[in-house]
């Protein structure tokens, strides 16, 4: 519904898509600047303007109108964002480090979408996200080194193995709630991490080599140029990472906007009420846990292939917390917030090299402050307008 | 296996059990009064251990003072630092966030733990490396056939057991304990009957955190070495012990602590391959136990706590 308090000039109001292109373009321009920025002052400047932007969007009529416009044309906005992301790849085509960061953000954000499905939609806590991520990478290493499977199947295998191993803790997770369920996943994460560290077959603390991705004959690690243009071999990984994120995004959006999503919401919000309406709590929680872990596993497999190696270091509780912080900071259930928070949490510490020694401290304080003063995250998930969808006679 | 080695393992298990139980009791206390998990607990332990070390170093190990005085100074400094750290975290994070979703509180207190850890790492000279802890307890060994045990270890174990016992007594038999239990059961009614809610909560945080700090000191005296990130795994183990035993239940926490230590020790003795798998086994036991007893071995009396 167009708000009455809007301050847009008539021309802009009549072409909301123009507004969206402008907004998304601005965001990606800022992102490009942040990724490229070398000196600390510009990084801080981006950060400050980011905070200011949130204030404007939250506090002013124009800002609210802006978000409402973007929300109304979500599909178009998503498309523009995808093009924007691919444009960034083209822009940084020969810059290894920037592309590596972009791909990392895309893959972590894809994993976080799986985590969002579990925590924000179904209400299943998972403190072992990094363990499932690492399980994906290890699976990629083993399947890639010892079998001749096409790599798309290898990636599917990563998801399946992560999902199946997740099944081992599914029963205790389903039987318990709250802190008890949290403990099960924490214990599972520590178990996997210690196991990887002491098991010699899996390389122990040194880890394993992971073969590079090879899709339909295109060996990602050997990409050097297209015609006369020099390329970083991270370019195909970046494109693949972005597409993987987009795939996960679309999948989870479809789930969210279907009756499955409504069932998940009901199960999370009130188990008793949901079971009164005939929903199986265990079934829907298991569904979200399984699908979420598979997404995390696939993202982990792709991440391992990009890095070329995997060791147990990334599988600890601390890394699971980083994943959880991303979704909590981004706003539980807000998929775009996820990528924003992933940029803040993964890129910012890399960019603030001058305070390298203090970055963990600053990071922890930052997360604490956000949780304390903005408990629903940077961008809270918006309520679904079911009545609007239903009145249009469509299935939600 | 000969008797001496077995006895050594059992003694180790007991020592670990007491330490885990002390940490778990803290978790149980916090959960009891406020229904929250304060996850910075492990790092409060490290804070206490480092404060003790700092005080002992400041007084001077070779200053000529009797060892018992130096030890007391270290003990007081550790307990105070732990209690203060615990109260600050409780006051600034846990109390304001107690109506927030459980995940938020978990994350926020975990980050508070990270802050404590980083402050130790950056603030203590050469803080990233393990620090030797001076031997302040009387040396000497007690000998039973092939089994020999240090007098210092026996003292540590006895103090730990005594402290766990005292805490249990305080909670079950004193006015403060009564207030704690009242707040735990029904905060609003407790306030109506004249109990200062905030003071009781913060007092509980102080007690639980001081217990953790004592556990840190015990570890320092036993292993003669402390580390800035010693609290990470210990915090999780203490949490696991508290949950397996049944949250909000002191006896459960103690039981859970000994159970976890028992699983670790048994894995060390029984497994044919390297003892490195002891944590894998112990955490697997935790997962199985939670699967079998979803609300802990000693469940809360009020069953439904949604």
TrEMBL record, chain B:
Belongs to the binding-protein-dependent transport system permease family. LivHM subfamily. GO terms for cellular component: plasma membrane. Its main location: membrane. It comes from the Bacteria. CDD domains: TM_PBP1_LivH_like (cd06582). This is Branched-chain amino acid ABC transporter permease. Pfam families: BPD_transp_2. GO terms for molecular function: L-isoleucine transmembrane transporter activity; L-leucine transmembrane transporter activity; L-phenylalanine transmembrane transporter activity; L-valine transmembrane transporter activity. It is found in: Cell membrane. The keyword Zinc-finger does not apply. One of its GO terms (biological process) is L-isoleucine import across plasma membrane. It is a multi-pass membrane protein. InterPro entries: ABC_transp_permease, BCAA_transport_permease. Keywords: Amino-acid transport, Cell inner membrane, Cell membrane, Membrane, Transmembrane, Transmembrane helix, Transport.
């Amino acid at each position: 519904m167009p708000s009455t308090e809007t301050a847009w000039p008539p021309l802009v109001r009549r072409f909301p898509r123009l507004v969206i292109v402008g907004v998304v373009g601005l965001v990606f321009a800022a992102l490009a600047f942040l990724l490229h920025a070398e000196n600390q002052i510009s990084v801080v400047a981006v950060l400050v303007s980011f905070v200011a932007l949130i204030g404007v969007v939250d506090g002013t009529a124009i800002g609210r109108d802006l978000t409402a416009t973007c929300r109304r044309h979500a599909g178009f906005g998503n498309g523009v964002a995808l093009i924007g992301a691919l444009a960034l790849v083209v822009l940084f085509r020969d810059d290894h480090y920037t592309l590596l960061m972009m791909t990392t953000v895309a893959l972590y954000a894809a994993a976080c979408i799986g985590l969002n499905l579990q925590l924000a939609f179904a209400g299943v806590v998972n403190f072992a996200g990094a363990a499932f991520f690492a399980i994906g990478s290890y699976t990629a290493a083993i399947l890639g080194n010892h079998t001749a499977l096409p790599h798309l199947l290898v990636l599917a295998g990563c998801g399946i193995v992560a999902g199946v191993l997740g099944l081992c803790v599914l029963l205790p997770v389903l039987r318990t709630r709250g802190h008890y369920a949290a403990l099960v996943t924490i214990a599972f994460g520590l178990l996997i991490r210690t196991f990887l560290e002491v098991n010699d077959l899996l390389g122990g603390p040194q880890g394993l080599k992971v073969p590079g991705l090879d899709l339909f004959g295109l060996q990602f690690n050997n990409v050097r140029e297209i015609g006369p243009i020099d390329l970083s071999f991270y370019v195909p990984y970046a494109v693949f990472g972005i597409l993987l994120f987009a795939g996960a995004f679309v999948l989870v959006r479809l789930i969210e906007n279907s009756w499955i999503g409504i069932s998940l919401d009901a199960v999370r919000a009130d188990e008793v009420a949901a079971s009164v309406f005939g929903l199986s709590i265990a079934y829907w929680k298991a569904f979200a846990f399984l699908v979420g872990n598979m997404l995390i596993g696939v993202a982990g497999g792709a991440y391992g292939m990009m890095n070329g190696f995997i060791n147990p270091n990334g599988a600890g509780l601390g890394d699971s917390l980083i994943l959880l912080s991303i979704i909590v900071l981004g706003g539980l259930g807000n998929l775009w917030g996820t990528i924003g928070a992933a940029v803040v949490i993964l890129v910012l510490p890399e960019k603030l090299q001058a305070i390298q020694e203090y970055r963990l401290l600053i990071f922890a304080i930052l997360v604490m402050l956000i949780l304390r003063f903005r408990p629903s995250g940077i961008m809270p998930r918006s309520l679904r307008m079911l009545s609007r969808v239903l009145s249009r006679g469509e299935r939600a | 296996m000969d008797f001496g080695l077995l006895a050594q393992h059992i003694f180790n298990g007991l020592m670990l059990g007491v330490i885990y139980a002390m940490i778990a009791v803290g978790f149980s206390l916090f959960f009891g009064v406020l229904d929250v998990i304060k996850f910075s607990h492990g790092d409060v332990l490290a804070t206490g251990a480092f404060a003790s070390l700092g005080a002992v170093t400041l007084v001077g190990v070779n200053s000529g003072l009797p060892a018992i005085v130096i030890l007391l100074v270290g003990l007081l400094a550790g307990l105070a630092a732990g209690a203060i750290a615990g109260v600050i975290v409780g006051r600034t994070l846990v109390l304001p966030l107690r109506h927030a979703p459980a995940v938020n509180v978990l994350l926020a207190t975990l980050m508070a733990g990270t802050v404590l850890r980083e402050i130790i790492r950056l603030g203590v000279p050469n803080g990233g490396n393990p620090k030797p802890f001076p031997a302040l307890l009387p040396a000497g060994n007690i000998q039973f056939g092939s089994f020999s045990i240090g007098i210092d270890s026996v003292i540590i174990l006895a103090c730990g057991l005594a402290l766990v016992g005292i805490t249990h007594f305080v909670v079950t038999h004193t006015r403060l304990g009564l207030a704690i239990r009242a707040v735990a059961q029904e905060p609003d009614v407790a306030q109506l009957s004249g109990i200062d809610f905030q003071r009781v909560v913060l007092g509980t945080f102080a007690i639980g955190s001081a217990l953790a700090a004592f556990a840190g000191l015990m570890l320092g005296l036993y292993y003669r070495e402390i580390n800035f990130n010693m609290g990470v795994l210990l915090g999780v183990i203490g949490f696991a012990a508290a949950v397996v035993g049944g949250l909000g239940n002191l006896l459960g926490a103690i039981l859970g602590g000994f159970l976890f230590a028992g699983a670790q020790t048994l894995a060390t003795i029984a497994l044919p391959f390297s003892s490195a798998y002891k944590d894998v086994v112990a955490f697997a036991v935790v997962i199985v136990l939670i699967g079998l007893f979803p609300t802990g071995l000693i469940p809360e009396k009020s069953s439904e706590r949604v």
